[in-house]
Amino acid sequence: MELSSLRLRIDSLDDQLLELLNERMKLVKQVGELKRATNTIIYRPEREKQIIDRLEKQSTGLLSRSAIEAIFLEIFAVSRNLELPERIAYLGPEGSFTHQAAESRFGGMGEYLVLPTIHSIFDSVETGRASYGVVPIENNQEGVVIETVDLLREKELLISAEILLPIHFTFVSQSDSLQVIRRIYSKDIAFRQCSKFLREYFEEANVELIPVESTSKAAKLASQEPDAAAICSHIAAKLFGVPVLFDNIEDSDQNRTRFIILSKNFVNQRSQSDKTTLIANLPNTNRPGVLYDFLKDFNDRGINLIKIESRPLRQGSTFRSWFLVEFEGHYEEPAVQEIMEKYGSNLKWLGSYVRIA
Ligand SMILES: O=C(O)C(=O)C[C@]1(C(=O)O)C=C[C@@H](O)C=C1
What we know:
Its EC number is 4.2.1.51, 5.4.99.5. Residues 279-357 form the ACT domain. This protein folds into four domains: 1-85, Up-down Bundle (Chorismate Mutase Domain, subunit A), CATH 1.20.59; 86-167 and 255-266, D-Maltodextrin-Binding Protein, domain 2 (3-Layer(aba) Sandwich), CATH 3.40.190; 174-244, Periplasmic binding protein-like II (D-Maltodextrin-Binding Protein, domain 2); 268-354, ACT domain (Alpha-Beta Plaits). It is built from twelve helices and 15 strands. The protein has helices at residues 3-38, 45-58, 65-83, 97-106, 118-126, 146-154, 188-193, 195-202, 215-224, 234-239, 290-300, 334-343; strands at residues 87-91, 111-115, 132-139, 143-144, 158-166, 170-173, 183-186, 208-211, 228-232, 244-246, 256-263, 274-280, 305-312, 321-328, 347-354. The strands form three sheets. Strands 1, 2, 3, 4, 5 and 11 form a six-stranded mixed beta sheet that branches. Strands 8-7-9-6-10 form a five-stranded mixed beta sheet. Strands 13-14-12-15 form a four-stranded antiparallel beta sheet, with helices on both faces.
């Protein structure tokens, strides 16, 4: 078939898609009105997952799960905006991986508040300046983000969802010839994680690697200096309009960062695959068996522990710790309830949400 007739058919399908999307939004608006009348939460990640799971099973065409997810997460983001526009704070600067994580869940139309520190994100959600806050909690190559973990204990916020982002670096420059490049800007951690690429392409060259505080700043500098390049996120390259010369230049394609979405007063309903995060302040961990007994309580109930991270209690000169604990399951499951009851105020529940990582 000819290009013009293929395009005509595409136009006709787009008309139908638009009509259906408008129909969908009418229903969403009604859901929003119901929710506002009953004062219930707009963002329901477990419902969104249920829709995507169902569509994936039903799909017989060319769309993969991630394609379905990309399209529908954007539709949900527009829906939520229509139900009630809510502000989302994320750890900046613009073009950071946290920005990319936030957009992957709250869409391109979200109203964002860009803040400079993890602490300021917690504060903005606590004071209600933002309804949600997006912060990194761990990277699978570098470990947990201590500031996030410590603030989860200190503050009274909940985790409503998690986001898993593959960390891909791009090499960007205004110059289309590598010979011209004299300087490469990036974060020190990004230089470390792209060392093979740098060795392969710039070992012999007289090029200076200049660490800056963020990969977005690197992209900005590269956008202004024709003989410079940057290693940055895709979103930063787009934001500062610097052409991408190489994609996915990281040494390991297994590099992932996990982000959490913080909020106040959030309760997810159970889904088929949930994760719970809590803080454990165990009484007197100097007595033999206290930590063992605690872990055994999970094992005895068939609960799969995913993570236990210890942090200093900072009580005088002791070496006592508190723990961030994550396990498979939802707060409402009887086995989890038993543990919560047994340890009472020694445990602080931080949220049960759809497990992605
Ligand atoms: O089902 C709901 O609770 C809705 O608000 C609708 C909808 C959707 O677009 O399908 C939108 C937002 C929620 O996060 C989940 C689903």
